[in-house]
């Protein structure tokens, strides 16, 4: 079973920086939570309590989504997609950590959506539903990081991609080489992380610069930020799947290739894709591009 629901209980909440909150979950049901192998950029879905504090009762099988969709909107709970930051297993049980991003304006006002707002107010004992892989699930479902045999990497992302990049770096083989560039709102948002010795990690505090501009410079591409938000779908292309979800027949990456992984605001990702693939001629089969969110648009699901 690729994905199923798990009831999770807040074990700890930590404010890591002005823009990041880490919530660590426990609970008996997480004993069966996966993945079986390394997480890399494993996606999960979180369903938050309704305004009445209730969580939907979902079947523990592949039909959970259909059941959730049939519920009245006020009974469903808001669902959002996140990345695994860490999974720890020991004698005390399984603990899942998820990093949430607070979206703070230039005046310091919080304009976060329902997920980060929930995280900001979360307390030990609070509950939500995690939709994720079984512990014995090894299909790789929900993991877009697909370098094949490549051992040289270029990772680029904004603050929303920072948790996935951190997890990828922690899961890379020791002999990996390359770089990771992470753009964050301020220097106070630079977080400690672990990476192979051959991978250079660069934190890029914006401090008022245009979103994505520092990443574009780090990647050596020229991009143009759209003047207004558009209604185009999120860009999501990997060596295995096209943006329309079509399975691709690209050859897996070989030792000696360079693999690019780029995620964050969709307009930024689109511009960097154009610069790398169309201008610099990076083969499409060596790049994963993922729009996690869209500027000026409230995301769902």
TrEMBL record:
It holds the Pfam family FAD_binding_9. CDD domains: siderophore_interacting. Residues 3-148 form the FAD-binding FR-type domain. InterPro entries: FAD-bd_FR_type, FNR_nucleotide-bd, Riboflavin_synthase-like_b-brl, SIP_FAD-bd, SIP_fam, SIP_rossman_dom. GO terms for molecular function: oxidoreductase activity. Gene3D superfamilies: Nucleotide-binding domain of ferredoxin-NADP reductase (FNR) module, Translation factors. It comes from the Bacteria. This is FAD-binding FR-type domain-containing protein. It comes from Corynebacterium halotolerans YIM 70093 = DSM 44683. The lineage of its organism: Bacteria, Bacillati, Actinomycetota, Actinomycetes, Mycobacteriales.
């Amino acid at each position: 079973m690729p994905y199923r629901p798990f009831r999770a209980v807040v074990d700890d909440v930590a404010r890591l920086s002005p823009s990041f909150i880490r919530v660590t979950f426990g609970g008996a049901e997480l004993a069966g939570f996966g993945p079986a192998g390394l997480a890399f950029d494993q996606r999960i879905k979180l369903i938050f309590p309704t305004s009445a504090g209730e969580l939907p009762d979902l079947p523990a099988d592949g039909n959970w989504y259909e059941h959730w969709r049939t519920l009245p909107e006020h009974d469903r709970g808001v669902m959002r997609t996140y990345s695994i930051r860490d999974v720890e297993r020991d004698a005390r049980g399984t603990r899942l950590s998820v990093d949430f991003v607070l979206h703070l304006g230039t005046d310091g006002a919080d304009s976060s959506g329902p997920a980060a707002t929930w995280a900001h107010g979360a307390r030990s004992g609070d509950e939500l539903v995690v939709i994720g892989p079984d512990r014995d699930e090894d299909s790789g479902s929900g993991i877009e990081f697909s370098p094949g045999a490549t051992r040289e990497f270029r990772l680029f992302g904004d603050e929303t991609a920072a948790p996935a990049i951190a997890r990828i770096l922690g899961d890379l083989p020791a002999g990996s080489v390359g770089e990771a560039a992470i753009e964050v709102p301020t220097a106070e948002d630079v977080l400690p992380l672990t990476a192979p010795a051959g991978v250079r990690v660069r934190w890029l505090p914006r401090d008022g610069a245009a979103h994505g501009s520092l990443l574009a410079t780090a990647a050596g591409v020229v991009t143009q930020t759209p003047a207004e938000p558009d209604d185009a779908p999120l860009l999501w292309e990997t060596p295995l799947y096209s943006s329309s979800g079509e399975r691709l027949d690209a050859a897996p990456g070989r030792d000696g290739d360079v693999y690019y992984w780029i995620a964050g605001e969709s307009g930024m990702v689109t511009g960097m894709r154009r610069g790398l693939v169309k201008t610099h001629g990076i083969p499409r089969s060596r790049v994963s591009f993922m729009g996690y969110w869209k500027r000026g648009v409230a995301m769902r699901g």
